[in-house]
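Database export, one record per block. Field names are fixed; values are copied verbatim from the stored entry.
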Amino acid sequence: MKSKAALLFYSGLFLLMFLPGCSHKEQFRYEKKQSVLIRSLREQMFFEYSTPLKETMKIYMELELANHPNLQLPLEKIYQTEQKLKIEKPQLGCYYQTFQGFDGDKKLYIIMDWNNKDGVIIRFFTNSNQIIDILPDYTF
């Protein structure tokens, strides 16, 4: 009887830990070791797109990226994280969110950080050709 209760407990714990990670509803998480995260993605040969999050990029995200059927870009959470970065202005670390399985086994990482010169920087790391094709060819 004890083992059955333990199994139910651990099954519930597993669901609580891993199911929210698959959802677009989760918040951006803070990572103190930004360089380690970015280096890891570069070593895995992820395509990288980076630009300051200015009004022109926001318009592009709303018109192009948010309408992509497989992407479901969380614009509201991006804008909330942008405001948080403008207030905190952290010199170290970044906020990130991971999306998995939207295009087979492909992944997308959205990383946002503060730069004293340019303000909020948004970075997209992906191994999906579909996402690479809709990202702009220039920075804003």
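Remark 1: The first helix runs from residue 2 to 18.
Remark 2: The beta strands are 29-31, 47-52, 94-100, 107-115, 119-126.
End of record.
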